[in-house]
# Entry
Amino acid sequence: MAPGDPDQGFTLDHTDGPELEVLEDGIRARDPLRQLRRGYLARRDLEMRLPVHLPRPPAARMPNLRFDAADGAVLHLRRNGAPARTMRLTNRCIELLKLLRSARWLTTGQVCRRFFAPASVSAARRRLRALTCAGYLRKHQENRMREAVFALGRKGKIALERDGFDGVALERKPPKQREHMEGVNDIRIAAEMTDGLAFFFAAWELPGIGWKFPMVPDAVFRVGDRTFAAEYDRGREGLRYFVGSKVAWYRRGISGFPLSGVLVVADRDARMRTLARAIDDRDGRVLCTTINAIRREGLPESLRRNAAPAATACSPEGSRRENTFVATTVVESTACENLGTGS
# Structure
């Protein structure tokens, strides 16, 4: 059959029966194909399409045509038909990536307080969602009832390395003591929003800067010309250990690293008052407050101004003073009893 001829029937000899009529596009017979003899279908023309490559120089690009798609070879189109460009990082986005390099994980509320105040949390969520979808951030949320936390993504790591930051690590999942890290980062954000901040290093950053002392504070920071240590207490340690070990170590002084004061941040108001009574700080160098006050008001006023801390008596009652700064100078009779009690 010549190419181009219409479909015609032709006959095949079947040894066990009469002739069968077969078309070009198939076999019409009661017997399946595998029962036909091989010789009947041999020596016939076979037509196949083969791709042919012709070497030649590539075609010139058309003017004003974009090929550098951000997420693959196919350009994402907007509703108006225009090609979507690469996501542009603002200065605020770059600062967020830099903060995550040190803080490791930040909650939505922490990002909102640091970069979006006084805007609503919805504005922070929209930007965080866009950065996460673009690969600059990584989101982790255990369940809908718990606030999401964000860490650096692969594109965020590349963006920081492009700006000259070395040793940028990517976090796989939040640490087991997530609440403690969030509290330390709350103190960090309050310090960053204070004028005159020179540096802030959390406990996980101190080994990288050569910290060789036996006790590791939760954070050290410097405001103006004064250096402070910070301790975030969630009530997991007994008063005897906290006062007898940590506070006593701070009182003896750190050789080569003088401190102007120690900021003790408790997780609740009752714990703050118990710590303030047990510490017995007569020179006003140990300053006590709560994490809620840090989130709402920032660092205590005596830390923000470049002056010696102003001591204030701790009162066991007075609900008006709840979640506010307190520095103890008065020792009550119950202090000895509190030294022997647990958290």
In short: The longest helix spans residues 178-192. DSSP finds eleven helices and eleven strands in the chain. Residues 114 and 193 are 7 Å apart (CA to CA). Confidence is low (pLDDT under 50) at residues 9-14, 69-76, 307-343.
